[in-house]
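Replying to the earlier thread about multi-chain prediction with a worked example.

Input:
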Amino acid sequence: MNGGLPRRLLLPLCVILVLLWSLLPILWQVTTSFKPNSELLSLPPLMPASPTFEHYRVIFDEQPFHHVLVNSTVVAFATTLAALGIGSLAAFPLARLPIRGKGTFLGIVLGASMFPAIVTVGPLFVIIRELGLRDTWWALVISHTSFSLPLTIWILTNFMRELPEDLYRASRIDGCTPWQSFYHVFLPLCRPGLAAAAILVFLFSWTEFLFALTFTATEASRTVPVAIALFPGLHEIRWGEMAAASVIVTIPVFLIVGAFHKHIVRGLTVGAVKG
Amino acid sequence: MRCMTETRVGIAFLLPALTVLALVSLYPILALLWLSMRHRVLPFQIDQFIGFDNYALLFVTPRFWNSLTVTGYFAGVSVAIEVILGLGIALLLSHSFKGVGWVRAAVLLPWAIPTVVTAKIWDWMYQPQVGVLNYVLQAMHLTTAPIHWLGSPSLAIHAAIVADVWKTTPFVVILLLAAIAMIPRDLYRAAAIDGASSWHTFWHITLPQLRTILIVVILFRMIDAMRVFDLLFVMTGGGPADMTETLSIYTYKILFQTLQFGYGSAIGVVMFLLVASVSLLQLWIGRNEFRRMIGTQV
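Result:
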């Protein structure tokens, strides 16, 4: 507005402060992952004097980190597929078909999304144990899918509502069955909504901790967040290896945020901000 | 006739979602109520009905009241800081300047990082002897002796709040940025013509326009902060001296470390009721948006 010199400097200065606040802790963890153990015991130096890949080697060679990575990947992809499949099926009638009581249903869905995981984890543990699903991918995929369904249904219902009012009727007059109308007309048009939901569900499953901690027991199903939380250390905490593991689990997250920043924002703001 | 088939088709489409939600979300809540009225300790095959005894025990247990206080303090303080800081950052990033897209994406990163990693990042920086925070403070001659950030009963909760603020402020920023973009530009043009100062413009235009979204954000964040688990579980495990033991962590310890499923479920029920009451407030405030969504029939 009135662009005096201090004011012109204020904006970039604040932006730099915000960037430092957001990025420095992450950069410090990256730096740590490249420091040899001897340099982790004292400061300075701040920057690694003799950078090393040793910690990365150790977590893959001496620990079952690749198992854990595979578990996380399978669970996150399976959850995303299941949540999107089931969620888009449910969103279609909620948005477009004449069904009584869908307000109630959507209310229940929204309510379910607010249940704290800790509230359901006890009873779920008992069920999973009795079904013999403990320490399997199934336990995680099922619980993660159920937990991400409300968000998926909410995003996709909103999205389908935004499509032209007459679309469904027109497709029916052209001879589509309701299924064909859903699959060939609505789904393709919903691609941005599907992308937004997919990214949020994937991120949720990839980073989820409580269910993963409770329902897994060994490398057979343990995911990366749990592996990092329960990092083995006989006498001391192995900060270097932990940092290396953190960097690896965070790389996909960064790629996703970098590539789909706009989709994420769109998914998160659905319903909260009118538009 | 056509309507009949469509209703049937619609129900068929809803069936998978209904099944999953009923089995994995609703059934556990009912099971929780049932369990909370039983004396059940997993490994000993103890399982008997005791009515409301668990609740009676709960209300005379100081550790329960402590966890309630810790939860309230953690949620209240961190949400307050997040909203104020988030509003500031959102206003800053609503300016258009070169590279603003990249800055916005960078600010989002802490939100996307797994919470377990956030906890480890801060735990490492908070280390008394080898942590970078104490090193910087001492190098700047602000402190002389290393501070035990997570080891001191009064500091630990605040150290955890800082980590939580770091991680969740981006969420507030995203929602507020979207809302700021929706404010009609004319309002600002009119204010500029009237010669309003930027403080006046903020106080009389921006803030009132953001009122609804601010309430939504605060409630949403409250619900989230009240059930905080990952961050504290990994960073402090509820210690030192239970000073960071929130309801979630207390419940988890009773359920999975002492395996008292009956008593643990009773704490779960209390927690459910607390979160549900905030959620209901949230739904009530968002009821118009909700009606708009389900309102018009095909």
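The first helix of chain B runs from residue 2 to 36.

Feel free to reuse this layout for your own posts.
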